[in-house]
DNA sequence: CGAGAATATAAGCAGAATACTCACATTTGG
DNA sequence: CCAAATGTGAGTATTCTGCTTATATTCTCG
């Protein structure tokens, strides 16, 4: 019995050197995100990704050692994107309403390209081999930013962590639901989501 | 070209008449829910469901004409359950805090058996053939109950529909997230989710 | 130019699943 | 005790999927 590590799982089998191959790799990752968002993990096959990207299946395997390495690349790219959105919204000190507005706009923008990618990545995609760590790390930093905002705007300072978790999952739920119904750009929704955030963080949940 | 309807898709190939077969069918549906919740749609195979139920694959096909009929049965059962929870919480007139508490408790209880079944049913499961109607009908009635509550507790009566949608998806998001982390029974979470509902429905999202 | 390196192609393999049938065994009710 | 109801599971036929490989094309750079 070896050390429980089944696969070394290198990120890239070969690093793209010319501009052409960089574009190819980018096209593959982009197509992968599209397939994942449109059809979900169940329909995510390397052949279909290659076809969607407009490259041959051989090209895909020239750079990605296996299917999971591809998913990892997609995940990394998407998480980095989302993380930057929250970091930006929670960065400097600003009025609550402005924070909420920027957060909502950013999250909606991030989900407008591949509406359900985020959820698929969180729910359906296997957390196999090494992505587990990246996954957890993302979640941790993700929450940190939320917690920072919560600490900044909330009077009651208890349970910051739980409050942050509740807030983030509520926002994600609303966005995800809107994405599924193709209603991400409804201005009414943006407004209400903003109000939800403000109301919860203002936080006097009615007495008694 | 015929009428676009590929399959008549009967619900049951044969109706169980004896107590034994009723139990068998029930075991199959229950096992199906478990498999769907534990492994997701990608791992949902009729063979695995039968094995989980402790019956032979032949028994399954004696009552369910095909895979989708089985999923439909699972969906119907689960949706009926969830619907009853909301109906009960939003039934009589009661103080906001009590409504919130009952809703949260009910939703958590409903998700405690098969934590991620609800999301899987909504997101991964194909809406094929005839379940589309049931699906939409469920969503409609689901929202109706939320809307009733919103109309009852909210001062501003505009956008009742949007508010109901935002509220329901926020609640679902929190529950779903908690389910994924096995934190459904954390009392802190129940409390915060209740406060979120109250705060949003109380609804003065800070001025300016 | 031209040679070798980098990149792209797609036919196809080997094996794993999977939905579903069918011929037969067992149990039940009347 | 028998006909109907119920249960069984090996087997089938088909699809799919991840991935290799032998070959073709394009780029870089002296």
Summarize this, please?
2 copies of one chain form a homodimer. By secondary structure, chain A is an all-alpha fold.
Report on the architecture of this protein.
The structure is a homodimer of 208-residue chains. By secondary structure, chain A is mainly α. Chain A has 9 helices and no strands. The longest helix of chain A is centred in the middle third of the chain and has 23 residues, at 67-89. Chain A is elongated. Chain A binds a DNA duplex (30 and 30 nucleotides) through α1 and α3.
Please supply descriptive tags for the structure shown above.
mainly alpha, disordered N terminus, homodimer, 9 helices, 208 residues
| Distinct helical segment count of chain A | 9
Q: What is the N-to-C order of secondary-structure elements of chain A (H for helix, E for strand)? A: HHHHHHHHH
Task: Find the biggest chain interface.
Answer: A-B, 45 and 45 residues
- Beta-strand percentage of chain A? under 5%
SS-derived structural category of chain A:
mainly alpha
Topology:
The structure is a homodimer of 208-residue chains.
Chain A: H1 19-39, H2 46-53, H3 57-63, H4 67-89, H5 96-112, H6 117-123, H7 131-153, H8 160-180, H9 187-202
Helix pairs in contact in A: 1-2, 1-4, 1-6, 4-5, 4-7, 5-8, 5-9, 7-8, 8-9
Chain A binds a DNA duplex (30 and 30 nucleotides) through α1 and α3.
């Amino acid at each position: 019995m070896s050390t429980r590590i089944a696969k070394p799982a290198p990120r890239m089998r070969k690093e793209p050197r010319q501009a052409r191959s960089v574009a190819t790799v980018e096209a593959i990752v982009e197509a992968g995100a599209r397939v994942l968002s449109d059809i979900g993990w169940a329909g995510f096959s390397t052949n279909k990704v290659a076809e969607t990207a407009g490259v041959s299946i051989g090209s895909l395997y020239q750079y990605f050692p296996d299917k999971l390495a591809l998913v990892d690349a997609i995940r990394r790219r998407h998480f980095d994107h989302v993380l930057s959105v929250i970091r930006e919204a929670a960065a400097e000190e600003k009025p609550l309403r402005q924070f909420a507005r920027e957060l909502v706009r950013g999250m909606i923008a991030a989900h407008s390209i591949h509406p359900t990618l985020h959820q698929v990545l969180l729910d359906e995609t296997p957390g196999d081999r090494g992505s587990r760590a990246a996954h957890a790390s993302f979640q941790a930093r993700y929450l940190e930013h939320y917690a920072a905002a919560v600490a900044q705007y909330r009077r009651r300072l208890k349970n910051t962590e739980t409050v942050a978790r509740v807030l983030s999952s509520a926002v994600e739920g609303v966005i995800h639901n809107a994405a599924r119904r193709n209603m991400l750009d409804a201005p009414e929704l943006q407004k209400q989501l903003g109000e939800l955030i403000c109301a919860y963080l203002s936080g006097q949940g009615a007495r008694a």
